[in-house]
Write a sequence for this structure.
């Protein structure tokens, strides 16, 4: 599924300084019953966001009008748990284009890259600084520059570089996914299959 | 150059290496179920492409399925819709489909090995993180996202950077009442839920060599809970005896060729791992979890440790204990249990039911406990009946349900009510995993049996002289 091209994103950020945010929190299993990829944003963090009677929980950050933006800043080990890509769709669908954390769970990180959400891993110190800055001023902006592979806290100018493979970077910049690539080498794959030991 | 088991299988399947990018990895066997496949098929339709190797994909319905009255139409319209979508898609694209009521139906990671779809040295993926189960056969098996399901359907490949390699060695003799589940929960409690992130694990040592295939599957199943991409165990005679003659296993000449390949599947003596850990079998006790991630586990007779022993800091620790209604320093022994769930791809195989039954034989279920015994497949269900276990279970006040994922993720009606306590043999104790507000304690089938009989958390070793 194609997604919007990513280059430079300048935005305020939503802070979620909780560690081990798992995929069951990102999107509880009961919302995985769709057969189409629509409406997942409504159920992002469903059980943290809404009471059982569907009224918003006032103390959850997504319900706090002070915070907004296309960047979600999470705690360490973000996205642990299941391989459900719905978690990444929910993040994208809600309107986030970038998730920042000092550590990502593996599959979630991969899924993000495949659906157009850029996972930016920063040092624990920089993560603390970002949380502090947002705490001091909820409108604080971050700039994420994919070409330069940098993330900058605009209020102070402090920046860090982040890792991404050159292949994934090109894909993100062009809005391509892996499938576009695989389809282009189909005959090579068919030939390969014929010589396998099992 | 010396290679690890993982290197050998991985390198055999690399179609192409991309500079500054991932490897293009060929996938031998692909398992699909109703939850993570519909959107992938929708993608194929939108792009107008076919399934490249339909004979390499197998579909079973499990996540959403009811575990009673499977002959009746599925009541929840959303679940029914997903199940229908799987059937329609499988038929349209020529994929083997084992839907509800089909004799081969069951949990995807239970039926894969039972029918010989799982093979040593194969690459196996499924849109479910516990695909790591199949690593028990010396396969590279891991969970993928729905975009990747679409890639495998349309190209039989995915793109993955090669993970780092870790070996976990455990030697010695396991103590009385200590099961493969305890070994896995012990490792996770030591490593934490992110301790193996970025790694693919090989389990080595006589503890694993002496395990049955069922036990090895339980261990590999839980690899994902320490953050690993997957886990694997080198195939040996136990593996080959299990695989031989199963429906989708190679036959005749192909079997001889496969056998020659299987025999190459071990880590070379001087191969190097990025990380190597060693534990002692004698240190492992029957385990139970007290918190809301699988790393928050401890020996059943210990006290709940303080926050410094737990990943995630004080806030996470407190939130977790608060959710569970437990306090630091509490003993888990004697805690009230409302539900007992035996099943899932972690502990829903015949050996698990044998163990459970051997404990409850001649005893009676506690009145305050609701027990859900859910076989992983129809084969397991049949074995339970054929081996006479069902009679013993019935006598002890238990009922057997029909196969499916059930309360492991509570997508069907098997939900633990808010605030209630469940001892579960499944794999995740996350907040709400077994139903909104449900409180889960993960443990082995043996600890589950002791809880079902006494109605509280009980060390099974105190109630038995000797296990059958
Ligand atoms: S039993 Fe649980 S972990 Fe296993 S496949 Fe089903 S939902 Fe996934």
């Amino acid at each position: 599924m194609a997604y919007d091209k990513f280059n430079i994103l300048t935005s305020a950020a939503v802070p979620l300084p909780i560690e081990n945010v798992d995929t069951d929190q990102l999107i509880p299993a009961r919302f995985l019953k769709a057969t189409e990829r629509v409406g997942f944003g409504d159920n992002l963090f469903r059980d943290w966001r809404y009471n059982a009677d569907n009224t918003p929980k006032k103390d959850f950050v997504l319900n706090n009008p002070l915070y907004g933006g296309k960047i979600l800043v999470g705690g360490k080990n973000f996205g642990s748990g299941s391989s459900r890509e719905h978690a990444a769709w929910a993040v994208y669908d809600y309107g986030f284009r970038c998730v920042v954390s000092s550590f990502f769970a593996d599959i979630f990180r991969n899924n993000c890259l495949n659906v157009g959400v850029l996972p930016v891993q920063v040092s624990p110190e920089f993560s603390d600084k970002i949380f502090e800055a947002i705490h001091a001023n909820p409108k604080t902006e971050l700039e994420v520059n994919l070409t330069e592979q940098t993330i900058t806290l605009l209020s102070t100018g402090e920046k860090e570089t982040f890792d991404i493979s050159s292949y994934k970077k090109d894909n993100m910049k062009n809005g391509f996914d892996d499938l576009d690539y695989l389809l282009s080498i189909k005959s090579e794959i068919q030939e390969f299959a014929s010589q396998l030991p099992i | 150059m010396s290679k690890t088991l993982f290197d050998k299988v991985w390198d055999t399947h690399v179609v192409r290496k991309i500079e500054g990018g991932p490897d293009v990895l060929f996938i031998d066997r692909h398992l699909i179920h109703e939850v993570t496949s519909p959107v992938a098929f929708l993608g194929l339709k939108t792009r107008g492409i076919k399934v490249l190797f339909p004979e390499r994909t197998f579909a079973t319905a499990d996540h959403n399925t009811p575990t009673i009255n499977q002959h009746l139409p599925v009541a929840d319209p959303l679940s029914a819709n997903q199940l229908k979508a799987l059937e329609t898609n499988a038929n349209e694209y020529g994929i083997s489909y084992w839907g509800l009521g089909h004799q081969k139906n069951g949990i995807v990671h239970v039926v894969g090995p039972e029918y010989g779809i799982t093979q040593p040295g194969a690459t196996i993926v499924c849109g479910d993180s516990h695909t790591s189960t199949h690593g028990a056969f010396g396969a590279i098996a891991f969970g993928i996202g729905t975009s990747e399901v679409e890639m495998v359907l349309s190209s039989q490949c995915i793109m993955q950077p090669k993970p780092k390699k870790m070996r976990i060695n455990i030697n010695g003799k396991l103590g009385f009442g200590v099961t493969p589940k305890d070994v896995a929960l012990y490792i996770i409690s030591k490593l934490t839920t992110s301790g193996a992130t970025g790694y693919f694990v090989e389990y080595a040592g006589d503890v694993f060599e002496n395990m049955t295939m069922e036990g090895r599957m339980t261990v590999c199943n839980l690899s994902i809970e320490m953050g690993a991409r997957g886990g694997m165990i080198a195939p040996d005679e136990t593996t080959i005896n299990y695989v031989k003659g199963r429906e989708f296993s190679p036959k005749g000449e192909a079997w001889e060729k496969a056998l020659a390949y299987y025999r190459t599947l071990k880590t070379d003596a001087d191969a190097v791992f990025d990380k190597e850990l060693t534990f002692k079998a004698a240190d492992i006790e029957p385990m139970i979890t007290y918190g809301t991630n699988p790393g928050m586990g401890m020996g059943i007779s210990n006290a709940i440790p303080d926050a410094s022993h737990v990943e995630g800091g004080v806030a996470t620790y407190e939130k977790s204990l608060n959710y569970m209604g437990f306090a630091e320093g509490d003993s888990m022994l004697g805690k009230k249990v409302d539900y007992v769930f035996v099943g899932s791809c972690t502990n829903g195989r015949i050996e698990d039911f044998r163990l459970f039954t051997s404990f409850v034989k001649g005893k009676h279920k506690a009145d305050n406990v609701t027990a859900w015994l859910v076989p992983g497949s129809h084969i397991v269900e049949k074995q339970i009946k054929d081996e006479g276990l069902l009679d013993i279970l019935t006598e002890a006040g238990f009922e057997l349900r029909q196969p499916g994922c059930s309360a492991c993720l509570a997508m069907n009606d098997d939900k633990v009510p808010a605030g209630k306590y469940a001892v579960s043999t499944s794999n995740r104790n996350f907040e709400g995993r077994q139903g909104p507000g449900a409180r889960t304690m993960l443990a082995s089938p043996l600890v589950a049996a002791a809880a079902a009989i006494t109605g509280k958390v009980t060390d099974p070793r105190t109630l038995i002289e000797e296990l059958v």
Summary: Chain A touches chain B through 56 residues (CB under 8 Å). Chain A has eight helices and seven strands. Chain A has a mean pLDDT of 93. Residues 4 and 33 of chain A are 26 Å apart (CA to CA).
